[in-house]
Amino acid sequence: MSNAPLVRLDGITKRFGDTVALSELSLDIAEGEFVTFLGPSGCGKSTTLRILGGFEQPTNGKVLLRGEDVTRRPPEKRNVNMVFQDYALFPHMTVRQNIGFGLELKGMGKTEIRARQDEIMSFLELDAFGDRYPAQLSGGQRQRVALARALAPDPALLLLDEPLGALDAKLRGQVQQELKSIQRRTHKTFFFVTHDQEEALTMSDRIVVMNKGKVEQDGTPEELYFQPATRFVAEFIGETNLLHGELRGTEGDTAVMDWFGQTLRGTAPAGLPVAGQPVTASVRLERLGFHAARPETANAVQGRVTGKTFLGSRMALDIAVEQAQGATLRAYTDAGTGQALSGDVPVWIGWDEASMAILRD
Amino acid sequence: MNRRNRILLSCVYWAFVAYVFVPLILMVLMGFKDSKFIGFPIRSYTLDWYMGVFEDAETISAFLYSVAIAVLSTIGSIIVGTWIAVLLEGRKFWGRAVIFGMTILPALIPGIISAIAFRIYARYLGIEPGMGAIVWAHAVHNVPFVVLVVMARLSTLPKSQIEAARDLGADPLIAFLRITFPYLVPAIMGASIFCLLLSFDDFVRSFFLGGYEPTLPVLIFAKLKSGMSPEINAIATAALLLTAVIGVWAERFTRRMNKDS
């Protein structure tokens, strides 16, 4: 059994009446992974989470937990715990009682429960709040109590349903770091659901981007950011330049496209259209470099700066590329370089092959 | 709002207050009158009527009888009403509206009609008039109020509370007992007080279904038949005070409980 993944979703389809929330989702999750399901609302990420928790049953397909079929098992009979979006702390119980609830129902003895409560409360720095009620805690503290309560029974898999949504922006950044470090220290498998791409990029080992009940791309944060496979992923994660052109052909991992008469080279994902078809490519803003003369990079075009936006540590520049019928590119540069560039003098913009991803639609 | 409207509004308000309270004040006042005849002028005051009430075994036993009926019928209404509320709230099933309507109906049927119906049905079932019959009728009449109050509270219980309990290992029954029920306690307390007062106050059902022993309202009615006397005012005032205190306390209690959670 040691080779079996912790979780296997096998052909999961979920329909609510006529709407298909999930279609044919198959996926493995390894022990100790921090997996994030990312997507807009209605993409099926929450449904996947609820199926894993046992709150929904798939219309078709199987859920295996450590090789065991748990598809039809109710939530109380799964070794899976969840941190709810609204935390769902029990208002009539103290922090300690909230944390003890799952332990009690596991049939643990009184002293054992007490020891585990102490352990988890000191681990999450909640020692001082044991006798407080949820109403007497701040948002961040409540979030930690919810986490403590879910971790206390030592679940095989921890589900997190947008648990940072209710926190203010400043606290959120701090809690992201905390969550990641808690996950590392406990070696627990985290299944995190969010619509916030920044949150996903910061914390995850692996991100699964969902759209309309299907997986758009499944990979590390870096892969998703720099080698988006589809247009949806490129646009959903971070800011990007989308270049619309025509595919010339592929040479191994390289795809060659024509962009208003300019020949550009980028990385090619599987499933590209055949040569001659319209195609879209994505280049991140910070991957574009400015040069006085034509650079040695695989791709280079000449343009004029038409707009500057000062962003503090960096500057965003809009460049009109004359050779490409005035199509515009947007690029980040440091404030010094940005200030020195003037709209009167044409400038060379270069980027290498690995920086540009040719996309599937 | 201009000045004329403000004056008009306060006139209406004070007229309403007078309408509600003047009869009560007169009733209370007459209970202290040192004369058998109710009416002005009052020449001297006395506590004799109150003393008489507290020494009158008939009144005391009627009072205790009413309290016992109120407590028993309330327990019945709460059990049945909470049960129905839990079954109806947040569920969609065929015929739910009909069931809900039938649940609420006893509160809307005129007292005299339901009393007669109960009387006929009790005889048909062979139930003797008396305490059991009254408790039964009061319990049925009060169920709708329990259902409405408990359902209102239940509808504000986040679904995630139950899911969290289930997630942590509670089966549906444990989740109900440990999460749902504690959440409902303020509503159940409020509904209980309301049922107690409704039952204590009821005349028609108690009159039709009673045996030889009178409840307090029935006793007052019987005494009235033999002529108005300040004694009745004294009994009524004592009852008024008791119900007002319980009612105000219950209102504050439920409000505080609701704020806590």
UniProtKB/TrEMBL annotation, chain A:
<dbReference type="GO" id="GO:0015697">
    <property type="term" value="P:quaternary ammonium group transport"/>
</dbReference>
<dbReference type="InterPro" id="IPR008995">
    <property type="entry name" value="Mo/tungstate-bd_C_term_dom"/>
</dbReference>
<dbReference type="GO" id="GO:0043190">
    <property type="term" value="C:ATP-binding cassette (ABC) transporter complex"/>
</dbReference>
<keyword id="KW-0067">ATP-binding</keyword>
<dbReference type="InterPro" id="IPR017871">
    <property type="entry name" value="ABC_transporter-like_CS"/>
</dbReference>
<dbReference type="InterPro" id="IPR003439">
    <property type="entry name" value="ABC_transporter-like_ATP-bd"/>
</dbReference>
<keyword id="KW-0813">Transport</keyword>
<dbReference type="InterPro" id="IPR050093">
    <property type="entry name" value="ABC_SmlMolc_Importer"/>
</dbReference>
<dbReference type="GO" id="GO:0005524">
    <property type="term" value="F:ATP binding"/>
</dbReference>
<feature type="domain" description="ABC transporter">
    <location>
        <begin position="7"/>
        <end position="237"/>
    </location>
</feature>
<protein>
    <submittedName>
        <fullName>Polyamine-transporting ATPase</fullName>
    </submittedName>
</protein>
<dbReference type="Pfam" id="PF00005">
    <property type="entry name" value="ABC_tran"/>
</dbReference>
<dbReference type="GO" id="GO:0022857">
    <property type="term" value="F:transmembrane transporter activity"/>
</dbReference>
<keyword id="KW-0547">Nucleotide-binding</keyword>
<dbReference type="Pfam" id="PF08402">
    <property type="entry name" value="TOBE_2"/>
</dbReference>
<dbReference type="InterPro" id="IPR013611">
    <property type="entry name" value="Transp-assoc_OB_typ2"/>
</dbReference>
<dbReference type="GO" id="GO:0016887">
    <property type="term" value="F:ATP hydrolysis activity"/>
</dbReference>
<dbReference type="InterPro" id="IPR027417">
    <property type="entry name" value="P-loop_NTPase"/>
</dbReference>
<dbReference type="InterPro" id="IPR003593">
    <property type="entry name" value="AAA+_ATPase"/>
</dbReference>
UniProtKB/TrEMBL annotation, chain B:
<feature type="transmembrane region" description="Helical">
    <location>
        <begin position="175"/>
        <end position="200"/>
    </location>
</feature>
<feature type="transmembrane region" description="Helical">
    <location>
        <begin position="232"/>
        <end position="250"/>
    </location>
</feature>
<feature type="domain" description="ABC transmembrane type-1">
    <location>
        <begin position="63"/>
        <end position="250"/>
    </location>
</feature>
<feature type="transmembrane region" description="Helical">
    <location>
        <begin position="133"/>
        <end position="154"/>
    </location>
</feature>
<dbReference type="GO" id="GO:0005886">
    <property type="term" value="C:plasma membrane"/>
</dbReference>
<dbReference type="Pfam" id="PF00528">
    <property type="entry name" value="BPD_transp_1"/>
</dbReference>
<keyword id="KW-0813">Transport</keyword>
<dbReference type="GO" id="GO:0055085">
    <property type="term" value="P:transmembrane transport"/>
</dbReference>
<keyword id="KW-0812">Transmembrane</keyword>
<keyword id="KW-0472">Membrane</keyword>
<feature type="transmembrane region" description="Helical">
    <location>
        <begin position="62"/>
        <end position="86"/>
    </location>
</feature>
<comment type="similarity">
    <text>Belongs to the binding-protein-dependent transport system permease family. CysTW subfamily.</text>
</comment>
<dbReference type="InterPro" id="IPR035906">
    <property type="entry name" value="MetI-like_sf"/>
</dbReference>
<keyword id="KW-1003">Cell membrane</keyword>
<protein>
    <submittedName>
        <fullName>Spermidine/putrescine ABC transporter permease</fullName>
    </submittedName>
</protein>
<dbReference type="InterPro" id="IPR000515">
    <property type="entry name" value="MetI-like"/>
</dbReference>
<feature type="transmembrane region" description="Helical">
    <location>
        <begin position="98"/>
        <end position="121"/>
    </location>
</feature>
<dbReference type="InterPro" id="IPR051789">
    <property type="entry name" value="Bact_Polyamine_Transport"/>
</dbReference>
<feature type="transmembrane region" description="Helical">
    <location>
        <begin position="12"/>
        <end position="32"/>
    </location>
</feature>
<keyword id="KW-1133">Transmembrane helix</keyword>
